[in-house]
Write a structure and sequence with these properties.
66 residues, mainly alpha
Length: 66
């Protein structure tokens, strides 16, 4: 399943999270995680659209004389 975790393990993890954070904070935590993932995807798309990576920048730079 998900990274080698079965349904039972996921249920146990969810119960532990409920005990630690409580049911009231779970929506806030889920929203924060969702916004973080959204920002990460946005940043990776912007980097891909620029088409520049560190390797490409190094190739474009002329060699430095010592």
């Amino acid at each position: 399943m998900l990274g080698g975790l079965g349904v039972t393990e996921l249920i146990i993890i969810l119960v532990i999270v409920l005990i630690i954070f409580g049911a009231g904070k779970l929506p806030k935590i889920a929203k924060s995680i969702g916004e973080g993932i959204k920002e990460f995807k946005k940043a990776t798309k912007e980097k891909e659209s620029k088409g520049e990576t560190k390797e490409e920048k190094k190739k474009e730079e002329p060699p430095k004389d010592l």
